[in-house]
Protein 1
Amino acid sequence: MSEEIGEILVQADDLQHKIKEMGEQITRDYEGKSLLLVGVLKGAVLFLADLMRHLDVTCEIDFMAVSSYGSSTESSGVVRILKDLDAPLEGRHVLVVEDIVDSGLTLQYLLRTLEARGPASLEVCALLTKPSRRTVDLPVRYTGFEIPDKFAIGYGLDYAERYRGLPYVATLTLTDD
Ligand SMILES: O=P(O)(O)OC[C@H]1O[C@H](OP(=O)(O)OP(=O)(O)O)[C@H](O)[C@@H]1O
Ligand code: HPA
Ligand SMILES: [Mg+2]
């Protein structure tokens, strides 16, 4: 099997422009509040780092690692916690930061888990969404871009742990040799 970077789905400039807009919107919505960003490792690392540069509110970060894809292009459907948050969520305004909502299974699991910890509020900010693949209906308050039903790489998104550092989002083309 050989692999190559396919068509570009979201250009680097468009990503950065949208992230600035999202940061400004979140700043307005959380004015006067203290925000806890929960980054979902590993994919959300680039997005969270860029987003928080556009937040003008008191803000802390924490991370959770869950994995359902491994080195496959299809979700296994079984979500596992690999690393939990460092601090309790009780009474906190929590914003979950995701790179992509695809089937929605990861986020469904996360929201159930985090809601049970008693946050003051719990919302989601996702850079990318694939609405055509969604198997569960979820409340995503902030969304960057809708992308088609194709396996995407770049800007945090991996295939077998590679390609996360690309500054744009593209498709991955896999061909049998
Ligand atoms: O909506 P879903 O179908 O559940 O897919 C979305 C999730 O899958 C990816 O994570 P992955 O499990 O690949 O871990 P990673 O972030 O470390 O790559 C992505 O970062 C989301 O967290
Ligand atoms: O399209 C994708 N690419 C990489 N990781 C993913 N996790 C869910 N969907 C995707
Ligand atoms: Mg992955």
Note: The chain has a mean pLDDT of 94.
Protein 2
Amino acid sequence: MVKSHIAPSILASDFTELGCQCNKVIDGGADWLHLDVMDGHFVPNISLGLPVIESLRKKIPSSRCFFDCHMMIENPEKWVQKFADIGIDQFTFHYETTKNPKELIKLIKSCGLKAGCAIKPGTDVEVLYELAPLLDMCLIMTVEPGFGGQKFMKDMMPKVEHLRNKFPNLNIQVDGGLGKETIGDAATAGANVIVAGTSVFKAEKPSEVISYLRKEVDDNLEARGIKD
Ligand SMILES: O=C(CO)[C@@H](O)[C@H](O)COP(=O)(O)O
């Protein structure tokens, strides 16, 4: 059994008003904040890191919002403890960045964090089958990681479907190009954690978009009989 979680990606926010904008989407119904950490090596972009997330955490406690960190970085092992120390809730590493994913999951959990594993569009979903029972969440990228505002890759949906059929109780996240036009595909395939940057932060009424996304997910989880 799983719940819907709507996770706006702050990459699409106005960074000069970050705290206010985050509070607005949380008041509008967001369950998680999705924090995209990029190092300029694993992906061709640099976004934000420890100081920004630490400041946000001081304003927004865990009891108010779950901090979901998507680590688009090389050598993720080096950063787990540091991100745990500033109070994040979940550390999602990329499968492509580590030789020993099982050890990394152990490390993440030993630091008191939830563990997620992401795969790029070119990576086979089968790599997650052995790891999924050890994980709190799998992330199927629906764009090439690195930038917000890209087109949703519908051809990633069979990955979500395979994963959902094998693991009915797993949190399955999709990330990239999600909004009102694409949520139907993701929800039908079985995704329950929806990252939405542009569609939420650039909306006139973020709360209305969040409710729309949640309803699509909830209806589909209910139809599958796996809604918590
Ligand atoms: O991880 C990434 C991009 O690498 C995403 O989290 C995007 O930031 C989502 O943005 P939208 O496609 O929803 O604008």
Note: The chain has one domain: 5-224.
Protein 3
Amino acid sequence: MTPETLQREFDVIVIGAGAVGENVADRVVQGGLTAVLVEAELVGGECSYWACIPSKALLRPGTALHGAQSVPGAAEAVTLTLDAAAVLKRRDYFTANWQDDSQVKWLEGAGIELVRGHGWITEPRTVEVAGLDGNTYELKARHAVVLATGSTPTIPPIDGLADLQVWGTREATSTKDVPERLAVIGGGVAGSELAQAFARLGSDVTLVARSGLLGTFPAEASKLVVAGLRADGVAVRLNTSTESVRENDDGTFTLTLKDQTPDGRTTVTADKVLVSTGRHPALEGLGLESLGFEAQDGQPLKLTTDSTGLVQGLPDEEGQDPWLYAVGDAAGRNFFTHQGKYEARATGDAIAARAKGELSGAPAAWSRYAQTANQHAVPNVVFTDPELAAVGRSVERAKRDGYNVSSVELPIQVSGSSLHSEHYEGWAQLVVDEDRRVLLGATFAGPDVGELLHAATIAVVGEVPLERLWHAVPSFPTVSEVWLRLLEKYGL
Ligand SMILES: Cc1cc2nc3c(=O)[nH]c(=O)nc-3n(C[C@H](O)[C@H](O)[C@H](O)COP(=O)(O)OP(=O)(O)OC[C@H]3O[C@@H](n4cnc5c(N)ncnc54)[C@H](O)[C@@H]3O)c2cc1C
Ligand SMILES: NC(=O)c1ccc[n+]([C@@H]2O[C@H](COP(=O)([O-])OP(=O)(O)OC[C@H]3O[C@@H](n4cnc5c(N)ncnc54)[C@H](O)[C@@H]3O)[C@@H](O)[C@H]2O)c1
């Protein structure tokens, strides 16, 4: 077939059909507009095939097994270790074997068009797509173009690394085999979760963190995860930088680590090396330079968006609505699926409202068009065992933002936690705005605390006065009773 150039017009063009792009398109169509999604790989994006879903599928069996092993009576019934092949098979099920048919079907049902290929902006409201079918598509947007292109791994400048075929999180989450020895560089969320997943699947894991583990959490919380990883046999090397990585003749890798040993250096040999040292917005090759956006100081390009996701820095056009938006990882504010989808809902609704003349200028905070929670209440859970869960401001962040802050902390020791498992260890913290006596943030660490988080998110978003929160009685005997203990310790 001779390749063709096809011209199409839509109300809204969304580049990137990850969870975030899908949600923008859905809201736009629900708002009465037409939308096309442009996707270069799989509809569903990183989260469905290489990130949240497969990583949680790899973690959950180990957490379930450890849960049973931690309860006398059940522990006696557990006589074997994880069946790695069965875990990988279940992971394959959750990623639909890296086929996106069901997501495509969903798009069809939702009335969203799909063009498969790599897209980039050629001029305002115009996107060209090098179609995977060999055709070129020239797409025009009557109202908006949305960048929902996700993020790409940031590769650290470690000697030797650039030349080697090491694992990123994609290779780790989609692996068909469990390596005998795995070295993980990066002590953030992905590194901690995947180190534990592979340790429990049978790998001999070394996790190298240049400072503390999970450094964005309070130290009392993250140290419980360090203990959990070490209990699973992970060699957690804190305050250790990776000087070089080399491939050996037998295909294994040797890392030279700079640490506090008398020699100042040690080496670790592994069959696979996972690099999980953060991500940055995927904004390259999108034609943004033609609009005047340039990367600064050798750093990856970053955009600034307003509360509706509108990209800042483009000239106003007389009589025209603004047209360029960025959401989810591409917007570079939060790298979480749930928060990206929240942004997508607000952005999709704002685009539809602007198109219908129902919204002009900036929307009111907390209206359906504004991503106000981004400033106050971003929840996140680290799915290690024990888990970490946090929402809102930390004490340090609240102080920096000028709040009159106090905090209250406790080990989680309630009837619910004793019943949950033998030797339950947990920690909880509330961050309080003393002027308004409302919560600014909360952190929980411990087995299964992820499910405690939404109560805290509601309290922060609702700005529930502590005196009223006191009347939210946690059921007995749940781990949630830690809320009562925290409020009592606070003085209520
Ligand atoms: C290992 C790992 C585990 C994670 N676990 C969690 C978790 O448990 N919970 C959580 O909330 N978050 C988690 N995250 C973060 C989460 O995966 C991301 O925040 C989320 O995927 C972002 O969604 P998105 O739609 O913005 O981007 P993506 O899912 O990356 O989708 C972007 C899409 O755009 C496409 N694209 C990019 N450029 C173009 C182009 N020029 N033309 C056409 N298509 C293009 C890509 O192919 C991709 O499909 C995890 C991340 C990692 C790495
Ligand atoms: N459960 C979840 O919600 C979940 C799970 C995994 C990933 N994610 C998201 O995916 C994103 C990427 O995850 P991630 O763990 O790669 O990022 P991250 O930002 O959580 O952690 C990156 C880690 O790498 C370290 N690092 C950076 N440069 C380094 C260098 N040169 N040498 C050694 N260490 C270095 C940082 O200090 C940090 O500890 C995160 O922002 C997170 O939001 C979320």
Note: The first strand starts at residue 5 and ends at 15.
